[in-house]
Specification:
By secondary structure, this protein is mostly helical. The chain is built from nine helices and no strands. The mean pLDDT is 89.
């Protein structure tokens, strides 16, 4: 499938392509590369995607935020948590401006930021962001949504890491 994305990208560049559709293609290609742990390749695609988004949509657009988020994901996966935070926060700033506080994409960014802080060992900051993500996801998506479970799983991990086993157990019961 990587070859399919590459062929589609090459064809789109050669033709008079629809920039919106091409941005979506780059997003899917980036998602694919990150999912398959091809982070260096994903960063090349992410740079192209971000450039296209800024040029076509502007800095304050959800597609631009999504590209910042994927850049953050790649840095996170490479273990560069500070760089991941930089890009996650750029995505969050745009999302808050465009989508408002109570949106699933904002919750996803809060969760990503929490994960980065947790990986850096800043458990207080991680807890703050996980709680924000949980509150939004619970309110918007409902208690049975998989994204709520994802955030609860992150909280269980954090409580376990900080030796708060009773809290971990109670959170896991939720």
């Amino acid at each position: 499938t990587a070859e399919i994305y590459e062929k589609a990208s090459s064809l789109a560049r050669e033709c008079d392509y629809d920039k919106e559709k091409f941005a979506k293609l780059l997003e899917k290609k980036s998602d694919f590369l990150i999912k398959h742990a091809l982070y260096s390749e994903a960063q090349v695609v992410n740079d192209e995607w971000l450039s296209l988004c800024k040029e076509h949509f502007g800095e304050k657009h959800v597609s631009t935020a999504a590209s910042y988020n994927n850049i953050g994901l790649a840095y996170y996966s490479l273990g560069d948590y500070d760089k991941a935070l930089e890009y996650y926060n750029k995505a969050l700033g745009i999302q808050l401006n465009v989508l408002g506080e109570n949106h699933p994409c904002v919750a996803a960014s809060y969760n990503n930021i929490g994960m980065a802080y947790c990986s850096l060992g800043d458990y207080d900051k991680a807890l703050e962001y996980y709680n924000k993500a949980h509150d939004i996801r619970l309110d918007v998506l409902g208690e049975n949504h998989p994204d709520v479970a994802t955030t609860l799983d992150c909280l269980v991990f954090l409580y376990s890491e900080t030796q708060q086993f009773l809290k971990a157990y109670k959170t896991a019961e939720d």
